[in-house]
């Protein structure tokens, strides 16, 4: 089992991360007081940057899913061929005995 690193069960840790991520992405103002002192003269605001990061993450996940489709299709074809070969070998072994 893969641990979430917090000592809690993996599913609980994963759910907790998703809640935190959703909270931060949907925020309309900066949620951490220590970041109020951080003033940039370039780029978007920190909250806007967080929103853009969520868009980039969704876009990256979409590209990854699209790239994995041919891999999964090939894997399933290979498993079907392998299963057919296994059944043929089983039949040959049964006849030979």
The helix/strand series, from N terminus to C terminus, equals HH
Tell how many strands the DSSP assignment holds. 0
Task: Supply the number of helical segments.
Answer: 2
Beta-strand fraction estimate = under 5%
Shape: elongated
Calculate Rg over CA atoms.
Answer: 25 Å
- Largest sheet, described in full? none
Structure in a nutshell:
With 97 residues, this protein is mainly α. The chain has helices at residues 10-25, 46-96.
Would you mind describing this structure in some detail?
By secondary structure, this protein is mainly α. It is built from two helices and no strands. The chain is elongated. The model has no long low-confidence stretch (mean pLDDT 75).
Task: Name the descriptors.
single chain; about 100 residues; mainly alpha; about 0% strand; elongated
What's the SSE blueprint?
Elements: H1 10-25, H2 46-96
